[in-house]
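Saturday, quiet lab. Running sequence design on the structure tokens for the scaffold JK sent over.
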């Protein structure tokens, strides 16, 4: 999954805007009105005087619109909000036939590039569950890249995951879980005012009011129990307690536990912004 519009913004010209402009109901000043909305989403402001000069000449507005690159946008959310506002522009300029053409083109674009949104009528972009999870992993990687130690631990975990392709034995899966627990524990140590050195202790510290991270003690305990499992199951983090193991670790454990541990990172890292994960 590519995930977001920003990496494929350049492709929108051919697949969306150029095709939209060929519709019989597309007016000459289509890009003049679209450009007014586009500059709102860009980080570098355009003065009213310059904007007026551009939109006054449809051909110039079309050229300026096409020249906007992905790095000009404030962020992914600004881009998607522009796409939603563009629908209102299209409705005003060409009515339902042009608006429907725009909807169909954007919907096809989402499918072509496997983007992280569902498109709903009249025209709203909604993050998908898989898209939210993909963005969370992206944000987590950004956090780990900012610190050499975390970056190394992330690399160790990703390498352990890749190694399962050649050998998905219980031993390899336990190594994979161990590497992820090490990573999550190290991330949690960066939380402000945390003094604990083990994930269990840190979970308790993050539950202290009035700035408690956990919405409920049972959520905290779920994370602590995952940590206890990794410490108690033989061969993951320690020698463990053999009598407590019910069966050998297998691939279902790797998938389920990896997803669960990753899902707790918005609680354990103050650097992960959940609003960005959802909205982009």
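Result came back. Writing it out in full:
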């Amino acid at each position: 999954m590519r995930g977001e519009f920003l990496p494929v913004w350049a492709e929108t010209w051919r697949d969306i805007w150029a095709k939209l402009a060929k519709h019989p109901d597309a007016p000459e000043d289509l890009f003049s009105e679209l450009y007014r909305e586009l500059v709102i989403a860009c980080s570098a402001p355009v003065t009213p005087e310059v904007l007026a000069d551009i939109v006054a000449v449809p051909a110039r507005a079309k050229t300026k619109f096409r020249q906007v690159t992905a790095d000009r946008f404030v962020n992914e959310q600004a881009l998607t909000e522009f796409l939603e506002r563009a629908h209102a522009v299209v409705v005003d300029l060409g009515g339902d036939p042009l608006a429907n053409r725009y909807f169909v083109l954007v919907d096809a674009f989402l499918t072509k590039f496997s983007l992280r949104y569902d498109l709903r009528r009249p025209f709203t972009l909604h993050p998908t569950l898989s898209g939210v999870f993909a963005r969370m992993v992206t944000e987590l990687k950004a956090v780990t890249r900012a610190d050499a130690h975390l970056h190394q631990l992330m690399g160790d975990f990703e390498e352990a995951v890749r190694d399962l392709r050649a050998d998905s034995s219980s031993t390899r899966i336990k190594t994979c879980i161990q590497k992820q627990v090490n990573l999550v524990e190290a991330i949690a140590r960066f939380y402000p005012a945390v003094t604990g050195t083990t994930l269990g202790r840190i979970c308790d510290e993050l539950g202290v009011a009035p700035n408690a991270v956990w919405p409920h003690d049972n959520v905290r305990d779920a994370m602590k129990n995952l940590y206890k499992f990794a410490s108690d199951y033989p061969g993951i983090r320690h020698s463990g307690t053999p009598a407590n193991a019910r069966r050998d670790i297998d691939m279902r454990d790797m998938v389920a536990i990896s997803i669960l541990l990753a899902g707790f990172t918005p609680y354990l890292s103050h650097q992960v912004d959940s609003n960005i994960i959802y909205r982009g």
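Notes for JK: The beta strands are 117-120, 124-127. The mean pLDDT is 95. Ask whether to fix the surface positions before the next round.
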